């Protein structure tokens, strides 16, 4: 088996860079990568450096090394963009953080990098929009998901429904959006495209609890019955009966919950709800 040469092995380089960064020695880490740029694939090592900067709140420095990485002919991979977008969401207070994130995402959607694009990146930019209170842009990005040959997942819808729970939602038809997204979620869920988890259902519920009508509050109970199989104690309001679940047989949905068990720890007691 051929011997690995320390100076020419990208794995060993990235590992050593990670060790230096864990010690907080970013200067030596950058110098080490620069010294190997010409003859070693350094993308992973650069990713470690950018990630360190973003996690340390040094956004400008992270962008500087991102640009240096490209100038040295080390093209960013999918993980590079994930690190940047998550980094912007962690540092949303940084001036122009949202603008930089949108620029990075648009670059990722371009023909140059489109092969690296995934729903993970879309979810990351949606989170940036959510934290920066830009719902209009978030839903514009959501509308373009299919154009990029992507499919929304449970995280996508969780972020979007959290956005819909904001108090000020100007120029957005919340009622229509909720109805469309719930139908899309149910369709994807029944096709086993993704799992409807607690976070998603709670985000949907929060958006309805922000409503001003009794129908909105009442629908939360229908929601819990539909997804979790928790029976309503009272029948739904007549005017609310088929508001969002038109032409969907509720009894069919309960077949998903033959073995459902939802537990909540309260003090020293475990409260179990069984279907």
Automatic annotation (TrEMBL):
The keyword Repeat applies. Gene3D superfamilies: Tetratricopeptide repeat domain. Binds to mitochondrial small subunit 15S rRNA. This is Pentacotripeptide-repeat region of PRORP domain-containing protein. One of its GO terms (cellular component) is mitochondrion. Keywords: Repeat. It holds the Pfam family PPR_2. Regulates mitochondrial small subunit maturation by controlling 15S rRNA 5'-end processing. Localizes to the 5' precursor of the 15S rRNA in a position that is subsequently occupied by mS47 in the mature yeast mtSSU. Uses structure and sequence-specific RNA recognition, binding to a single-stranded region of the precursor and specifically recognizing bases -6 to -1. The exchange of Ccm1 for mS47 is coupled to the irreversible removal of precursor rRNA that is accompanied by conformational changes of the mitoribosomal proteins uS5m and mS26. Belongs to the CCM1 family. Signal peptide: none annotated. PPR repeats lie at residues 42-76.
């Amino acid at each position: 088996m051929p011997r690995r040469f320390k100076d020419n092995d990208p794995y060993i380089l990235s590992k050593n860079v990670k060790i230096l960064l864990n010690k907080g020695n970013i200067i030596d880490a950058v110098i080490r990568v620069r010294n190997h740029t010409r003859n070693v694939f350094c993308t992973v090592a650069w990713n470690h450096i950018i990630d360190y900067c973003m996690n340390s709140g040094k956004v400008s420095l992270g962008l500087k090394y991102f640009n240096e990485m490209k100038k040295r002919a080390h093209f960013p991979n999918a993980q590079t963009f994930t690190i940047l977008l998550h980094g912007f969401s962690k540092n949303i207070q940084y001036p122009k953080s949202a603008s930089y994130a949108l620029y990075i995402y648009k670059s990722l959607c371009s023909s140059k990098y489109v092969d690296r694009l995934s729903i993970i990146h879309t979810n990351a930019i949606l989170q940036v929009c959510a934290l920066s209170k830009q719902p209009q842009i978030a839903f514009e990005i959501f509308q373009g998901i299919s154009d990029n040959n992507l499919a929304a997942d449970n995280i996508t819808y969780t972020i979007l429904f959290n956005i819909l729970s904001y108090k000020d939602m100007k120029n957005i038809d919340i009622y229509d959006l909720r109805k469309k997204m719930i139908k899309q979620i149910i369709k994807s869920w029944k096709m086993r495209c993704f799992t409807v988890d607690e976070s998603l259902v709670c985000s949907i519920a929060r958006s309805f609890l922000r409503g001003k009508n009794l129908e909105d509050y009442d629908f939360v109970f229908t929601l819990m019955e539909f997804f979790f199989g928790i029976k309503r104690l009272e029948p739904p309001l007549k005017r609310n009966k088929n508001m969002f679940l038109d032409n969907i047989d509720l009894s069919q949905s309960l077949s998903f919950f033959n073995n459902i068990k939802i537990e909540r720890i309260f003090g020293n007691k475990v409260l179990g709800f069984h279907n």
